[in-house]
Amino acid sequence: MAVWLTEDSKVIVQGMTGSEGTKHTARMLRAGTNVVGGVNARKAGQTVRSEGRDLPVFGSVAEAMAQTGADVSVAFVPPRFSKDAVIEAIDAEIGLCIVITEGIPVHDSTVVWAHAVAKGNKTRIIGPNCPGVASPGKSNAGIIPADITSPGRIGLVSKSGTLTYQMMYELRDIGFSTCIGIGGDPVIGTTHIDALEAFQADPETDAIVMIGEIGGDAEERAAAYIEANVTKPVVGYVAGFTAPEGKTMGHAGAIVSGSSGTAEAKKEALEKVGVRVGKTPSETARLMREIMSR
């Protein structure tokens, strides 16, 4: 069993005919993802040839779902059009919408999130500014490399794309059930807590790696959730131990103010509830390796 993305998932690509959409559609197909079509209102009715398959282009998400049974959308739509694209996916009630696009205005993200709530949260949004979701050996939706790890029983949730890849590679011999990149913007759809809940409920996930970063209080809230609800072992890493105070680092959400949001404060909160936290990604991988070898 994988979390949210399985071998049965039928994936459409919003923005499939653009340069990024074209490139990553081909890459997802090579990874075995069941891509069933794309969405571009201006090119509806056309067909795109990719990796030996003819993929239809639909005028809307609702049309694509009706024609193909799609239940996952991956959005590679430019920032200024992303709000409307994701709202369209929400209105169509697709089960999962993974928003890869970087640079979406935070105000647009808040509008999208409010719209999703008003519609009853029928669409799970992952991102924006995220690498996507990979269930190794089953499906790969987004930009996560498909050949850096293997299927296994570790669940991974991460704010950082590159650290997602590094952790997948370092633990490639043990393998992962699902790897979820949630993105590091101030307003995102799916949180650490959402992923922790899913991994806790998944019978084929035995342990969890959680990667956070400086800024905000998401990791502290995740620590409280772990203490109350998670019985599986969790190891963590918080990017930004060397970051200076009061400076925005990397992701738009990584803002540190005084001791609030520092890597050390997050590490303490996680360790207080029994999460082992590495000082480096490699140390975090070693901690998980120790757990999985017991």
From TrEMBL:
Q: Where on this chain does CoA bind?
A: T17, G18, S19, E20, K43, I100, T101, E102
Q: Which EC class is the enzyme in?
A: ligase
Q: Which GO terms describe its molecular function?
A: nucleotide binding; succinate-CoA ligase (ADP-forming) activity; succinate-CoA ligase (GDP-forming) activity
This protein's UniProt keywords = Ligase, Nucleotide-binding, Tricarboxylic acid cycle
Task: Report the EC number(s), separated by commas if there are several.
Answer: 6.2.1.5
Q: Quick one: which pathway?
A: Carbohydrate metabolism; tricarboxylic acid cycle; succinate from succinyl-CoA (ligase route): step 1/1
Q: Name one GO cellular component term.
A: cytosol
Q: Which GO terms describe its biological process?
A: tricarboxylic acid cycle
* Binding residues for substrate: Y165
InterPro entries reported for this sequence: Cit_synth/succinyl-CoA_lig_AS, Citrt_syn/SCS-alpha_CS, CoA-bd, CoA_lig_alpha, NAD(P)-bd_dom_sf, SUCC_ACL_C, Succinyl-CoA_synth-like
Which catalytic residues are annotated?
Answer: H251 (tele-phosphohistidine intermediate)
General function of this protein: Succinyl-CoA synthetase functions in the citric acid cycle (TCA), coupling the hydrolysis of succinyl-CoA to the synthesis of either ATP or GTP and thus represents the only step of substrate-level phosphorylation in the TCA. The alpha subunit of the enzyme binds the substrates coenzyme A and phosphate, while succinate binding and nucleotide specificity is provided by the beta subunit.
This protein's assembly is summarised as: Heterotetramer of two alpha and two beta subunits.
**Protein name as annotated:** Succinate--CoA ligase [ADP-forming] subunit alpha
Species whose genome carries this gene = Actinoallomurus iriomotensis
